[in-house]
Amino acid sequence: MELLEPLQKAIEEISKLPSIGKKTAQRLAIFILKSEPEQVENLLSALKDLKTKVKFCEVCFNLSVENKCTICRSQKRDITKICVVEEPSDIFALERTNEYNGLYHVLGGVLSPLSGRGAESLRIRELTERISMGDVKEIILAMNPTTEGEATILYLAKYLRSSNIKISRIARGLPVGGNIEFADQATIGRALLGRSELE
Amino acid sequence: MVLETVELLNFRLHRNTKIKFSEKLNYIIGGNGQGKTTILEAIYYLCTSKSLNGSADSEAVNFSEDIFNISGVFRDVVKNEVRVFFSNDTARKEIYVDDKQIYRASALIGKFPFVKLTQSDSSITYGSPSERRRFVDSVISQSNFTYLGFLLEYNKILKQRSALLQRLLEERSSSLYRELDAWTENLVLAGTEIIKHRISFFKEFISYFTPAYGRIIENSELPSIRYDFLGETDPDKIFERFTSAIKESRTDELRRAANLVGPHRDDAVFFINDRDLRKFGSQGQHKSFQIALRFAEFFYLKDKIGKSPVFLMDDIFGDLDAYRAQRISGFMQEIGQGFITLTDFPNFSHLVHNHADLIINVDNGSVNYAA
Ligand SMILES: [Zn+2]
Predict the structure, then answer these.
(1) What value does the mean pLDDT take over residues A177-198?
(2) B289 band by pLDDT with thresholds 50, 70 and 90
(3) What is the domain range of residue A158?
(4) How far is CA A117 from CA A56, A121, B272, B277, in A?
(5) In Å, how far are A7, A35, A43, B263 from A38, measured between CA atoms?
(6) Residue B134 Cα, ligand 1 centroid: separation in angstroms?
(7) pLDDT tens-digit series, residues B59-98
(8) Residue-level pLDDT at A63
(9) A98: number of CA atoms within 13 Å, CB side?
(10) Which residue of A34, A49, B150, B167 has the smallest Cβ count within 10 Å?
(11) Interface pTM (ipTM) of the complex?
(12) Is B282 helix (H, G, I), strand (E, B) or coil?
């Protein structure tokens, strides 16, 4: 049976979303079709607001409603530290830990020559400009533990070394609270090789 | 570890074959093209989710069907049922361990260890360095997940770095050179770990290999294996050696836009009585060397993993003289469970066998054996 055109169109658009297959898209489209009109209106206006009201922070490129994000505007943050991340979603993850009180900088990706992404496509110039303002004492590199993340860390470590600041990276290895018994063996092996001496 | 049963559905010639194996040797006997190697291949699929000779999964589906299904029960401390399913319609392969789906083939490596000895092993001693690297990598990967991780990562870095070198052919900027430095450092870090693992592997492996070689051919020949990285064998000096070598090759690498230094270009050299096997070895010495490598692999993996691998031997006895056939089959009796294909029955009289061994006759995709 041919699907009705509006339904087909909706399914097509929904399935363009990441990690949504044709089947899930179909289920979501039918769900929306069956929903109350008011509920659908709410969804539509939420999506519209998301696109029109949310922009990138002009300092750190975090998501923000204002020109500057809440973190950059806060008086309570430690402005001597900048934690460099790949995407805004990484900030959410780091913030949830409540372990970090410094500022952030969203790079907007990682180096990947295979997909044509070089240093010029990352917000590195913006980062050096922030450093040159003089308040920053430490840069923390918090890339994902991927091949490309690693190369980006090595690049930034070299590139920023000249400036008179401390450069550190987040540890790569076992998740705390994770049981060694259940961690995957490659992770354990890595953690062993990257072990540090106790003082 | 023992493979208790296997069940093949629409797998090549086998439309529906069930076998309950012996815990000792399983001789699989049949003429050419009757489907005896297919049984080894099915076992290989269970251990690796891949075909034996690199052929496409779709080719393994019985010509008049759309799917194949292979399942088997391994017994160690516990029992595990492994199932590999392939559908021509979706061109998708599904792997299950105890009904739980496994999404990455690499997650299966080392879980159900195996050793395979086939005719194509001749490329290990006769072939190019890449054939020897493939042998070494497969042995270490089965026993060491960290190594497998570094290997996968190293290969990714090679691809990224070569894309960058390509770009540098067209466009030279200080920013791109800095990127190259970062990828070079990344390459050296991962590559150093691979080389260090290989050095310590060979150091241990030789103590398995020398006695295995002595079991296959009884004479005073002394085999050895030499592995070094650009002349360096001290694990603590590899990083330094790699760093300086890649610096020296920089101009060449930029000109040819290729990764010219690293463990992806390594070789291991085989010797018998200090003479290079590849240059001076006789056919018999090559054969003995290949067989001894697999026996050494078996005992090495058994010690490292703490599980006895299943031993697959495809069509090896055809071109061995009675003396060697007898010694090798005697050696096989010590390993635990093995699967051996034979083309003709007369050969069988040379082989050492045990009352617990099973003889499986394969004829046009169906099997019969005395259970
Ligand atoms: Zn901000």
Answers:
(1) 60
(2) very high
(3) 63-169
(4) 20, 6, 50, 47
(5) 19, 8, 9, 63
(6) 49
(7) 999 998 999 999 999 999 999 999 999 999 888 999 999 9
(8) 95
(9) 0
(10) A34
(11) 0.77
(12) coil
Q: How many A×B Cβ pairs under 8 Å?
A: 71
Could you tell me the distance, in angstroms and rounded to a whole number, from the CA of residue B174 to the centre of ligand 1? Answer: 29
- Determine the residue of chain B that is closest to A156 in CA distance: B182
Of B109 and A10, more confident: A10
CA B299 – ligand 1 centroid, Å:
59
Beta-carbon count within 10 A of B171 CB: 9
Whether chain B has a CB inside 8 Å of the CB on A150: the answer is yes
Same domain, B133 and B266: yes
Q: Does A151 touch chain B (CB under 8 A)?
A: yes
**Are both B19 and B104 inside the same structural domain?**
yes
Query: Residue B109 is part of which domain span?
Result: 1-113+307-371
Extract the runs of DSSP E, i.e. beta strands, from B22-137.
Answer: 25-29, 67-75, 79-87, 92-97, 100-102, 114-117
Given a cut of 90, whether residue A29 has pLDDT beyond it is yes
**A152 with B178: Cβ contact below 8 A:** no
Residues of chain B with Cβ-Cβ distance to A158 below 8 Å are 178, 181-182, 185
**Chain-chain contact of B182 with A152 (C-beta, under 8 angstroms):** yes
Please check whether residue B118 lies inside any domain of the structure: no
Length of chain B, please?
371
Amino acid at B201: F
Assessment of whether the complete model's pTM goes beyond 0.90? no
A116 within domain boundaries: yes
A99 touches chain B (CB under 8 A): no
Q: Are residues B88 and B193 located together in one domain of the fold? A: no
In a shared domain, residues B6 and B101: yes
Q: Which residues of B touch A111 (CB under 8 A)?
A: 160, 179, 182-183
Q: Which residue of chain A comes nearest to B159, CA vs CA?
A: A114
Question: What pLDDT, in 10s, does the model give residues B310-346?
Answer: 999 998 887 788 888 888 989 999 998 999 999 876 6
A184/B contact by beta carbon, under 8 A: yes
